[in-house]
Specification:
A hairpin with a 5-residue loop joins strand 7 and strand 8. The protein contains four helices and nine strands; from the N terminus they run H-E-E-E-E-E-E-H-E-E-H-E-H. The radius of gyration is 21 Å and the shape is elongated. It has two domains: 9-48, no CATH class; 52-152, ANL, C-terminal domain (GMP Synthetase, Chain A, domain 3), CATH 3.30.300.30. Helix content is 27%, strand content 25%. The chain has helices at 9-15, 62-70, 99-109, 135-152, and strands at residues 16-18, 27-29, 33-37, 43-48, 52-55, 58-61, 77-82, 88-93, 118-121. By secondary structure, the protein is α+β, with helices and mostly antiparallel strands. The strands form four sheets. A three-stranded mixed β-sheet has the order 7-8-9, with helices on both faces.
């Protein structure tokens, strides 16, 4: 597609690497996607090497959202995850962090598509057996909270909670 950035040799050198498949001076763009070639020649995509995701068609660095949350005096630790193609959710420590204040803080610093739809506060975040933050568990907690919210909200037609009309 391109051989580099126009009039920016430093950025081209940083983002483009020698192409191991074509050789002969060809370069390829470093996308930060992680994958492998299968035996039958298919490219299997594993994800990204960074925490950049696409939300509402825009690229968002999840660590940037978390950093904004951690800049609040009341927030000691934050993790932000993509919960679907349209939304982010953040998980913060300690449990005393105010969800609305946190969302307002992010919306004052970042564009609308990078603002989490939910901020959930905990005394501590769940950890994997290896001591890392358990992002799968956080996603489970988020999705369970959404299911619980749907069950608890009254049906607009009948006024009954969690019952079909």
């Amino acid at each position: 597609m391109t051989k580099g950035y126009l009039a920016n040799a430093n950025l081209s050198q940083e983002r483009y690497r020698p192409d191991p498949f074509l050789g002969d001076g060809h370069v390829m763009f470093r996308t930060r996607d992680l994958g492998r070639w299968t035996e039958d020649g298919e490219l299997e995509h594993y994800g990204r090497t960074d925490d950049q995701v696409k939300v509402k068609g825009f690229r968002v660095e999840l660590d940037s959202v978390s950093a904004v949350l951690e800049s609040m005096q009341t927030c000691r630790l934050a993790v932000t995850l993509k919960v679907d193609n349209e939304h982010l959710a953040s998980f913060v420590v300690p449990a005393t962090v105010d969800e609305h204040a946190a969302i307002n803080h992010v919306s004052a610093s970042l564009p609308y598509y990078a603002v989490p739809v939910s901020v959930m506060a905990f005394d501590q975040l769940p950890l994997t057996p290896r001591g890392k933050i358990d992002k799968r568990k956080l996603l489970e907690i988020y999705h369970q909270s959404q299911e619980n919210a749907e069950t608890a909200s009254p049906d607009i037609h009948t006024g009954n909670k969690g019952q079909a009309s």
